[in-house]
Amino acid sequence: MAHDEVVERYSGLARAALTGKVVVDCEAEEFDQGCFGTAGYDDTTGVPEGALRAGLGCGDPVAVAELHEGEIVLDLGSGGGIDVLLSARRVGPYGKAYGLDASPDMLELARANAARAGATNVEFLHGTIEAVPLPGHCVDAVISNCVINLSDDKPAVLAEAFRVLRPGGRFGVSDVVTDGPVDPIRRAAAEQRVGCVAGSLTVEEYRALLRQAGFVGIVITFTADHGDGVRSAIVQAHKPAIGPGLEIRPMREADASQVLSIYQAGLDTGQASFETVAPSWEGFTAGRVPHLRYVAVDTETDEVVGWVAASAVSARPVYAGVIEHSVYVHPGCQAHGIGRALLIAFIAASEDAGIWTIQSGIFPENTASLTLHQALGFRVVGMRERVGRHYGAWRDVLLMERRSTVVGA
């Protein structure tokens, strides 16, 4: 297994570092060119020499994680502890930095480096990045330095990062990625040269897995070119923000009954749609884009309190970036900002997916929905007068749309 190979490899490097050696986990020419190690850090003041000697990363995730005083940060695959120590300095005495590593030898090295640095707001945990030994919603930022590419279950890693983050929390990692399709033999050789035992993700694969986990606002920035399509990169994203005790995550099949119940409650108001009866789950899922469906849930009970989803407006290629959306909130949970949080997350996710226009039809009498949409950049582009009968009365529909300033600008 790649996991066992990785642990053994880095345990050996840790033992070497404990004896005072400078360790290198990629071929010498890569390290000498400044692609790995401590060359990517702007400021390592106060970091013990032992941590610098064991620096095996491919960037400086601490610099892009936007850490603030008092925050809690988790470093996935913390190695000799350099990023944990730098994070601990940024979050200050009222914050905390966790380091997680599967190698007992690396943990010994990291704890020794923390002791030399006099860092008291750090804690190093033994475990795997695919099963983080921390409760959900407990950290403000997740960082990692050239480690996720080593995992043989990358979807699990990203799902765990999403789980432990608080709503609004940030994901900022340095990693090795592949820039598009590459000859598999050349790609394998390049990955071996830079130490990717389990193989790197392509940029699009990375984006897709982050979206699948629930992340939005995804940005991938190349930082170094290792040849044959293999690059170092900074990967940034965030968990959707929402009020205390709640979380926005991708919609699941297990949410079906609650989603449809909220849908029916909205239809029963007479202001949500011309429809009067919610569809079956099969009908609901068949008509909606799979990767643009989210729910807001209570973090204690996982009860669904709202949802947002999208439908394609046409199968014609020219409309590939145009969707129509719906957002519904449980009648007992309205006026708490849930609809706004869902719509903000949905807009970010749609732009991540390459959507340039979001459309919606809203009854003029539904002033709360109109106000919400206008506040988030939607504009009225027209009215369909007396377009249909609803409970025996002819109704108008306002056509609203939001054109992205990011996609197709």
TrEMBL record:
Coiled-coil intervals, chain numbering: none
Catalytic activity: arsenic triglutathione + [thioredoxin]-dithiol + S-adenosyl-L-methionine + 2 H2O = methylarsonous acid + [thioredoxin]-disulfide + 3 glutathione + S-adenosyl-L-homocysteine + H(+); arsenic triglutathione + 3 [thioredoxin]-dithiol + 3 S-adenosyl-L-methionine = trimethylarsine + 3 [thioredoxin]-disulfide + 3 glutathione + 3 S-adenosyl-L-homocysteine + 3 H(+); arsenic triglutathione + 2 [thioredoxin]-dithiol + 2 S-adenosyl-L-methionine + H2O = dimethylarsinous acid + 2 [thioredoxin]-disulfide + 3 glutathione + 2 S-adenosyl-L-homocysteine + 2 H(+)
Keyword terms of this UniProt record: Acyltransferase, S-adenosyl-L-methionine, Transferase
Record has Hydrolase as a keyword: no
The EC number(s) this enzyme carries: 2.1.1.137
Keyword Transferase included in the entry's annotation: yes
Database matches in Pfam families: Acetyltransf_1, Methyltransf_31
Domain N-acetyltransferase: 246-401
GO MF annotation terms: acyltransferase activity
Family to which this protein belongs: Belongs to the methyltransferase superfamily. Arsenite methyltransferase family.
Record's protein name: Arsenite methyltransferase
Organism classification: Bacteria, Bacillati, Actinomycetota, Actinomycetes, Streptosporangiales
